[in-house]
Amino acid sequence: MTADTGGAATTHVPRAEYDGPATLLVGGAEQPVDVTLRGAFQPLDGHFHWYGRIAASPALDAVRSGSPVTLRTDHGEADGKVADVDTWGRLRVSGTGLPPF
What we know:
Layout: E1 2-5, E2 8-11, E3 17-26, E4 29-42, E5 47-54, E6 68-73, E7 76-85, E8 91-96
């Protein structure tokens, strides 16, 4: 992924973690969220796997487990899928490939 930085393109290198604001795109709607994300390259399948939690928010009440989503941060965006809700109301999110951080 490249980013436009005032005329000079840079290559996005995935980091191992990200904690901060993001935008969740699901069902055509954008929701501002806070996320805690981690990821690592898995040599067995040759892909970068990222995963984490989306902080509880009333705006996420309609999002169901298994829903495909796009997660966007200031560093990029990536498609993923939401899963279970934990005891604290946070949604698990995961994806494979270039992460949004």
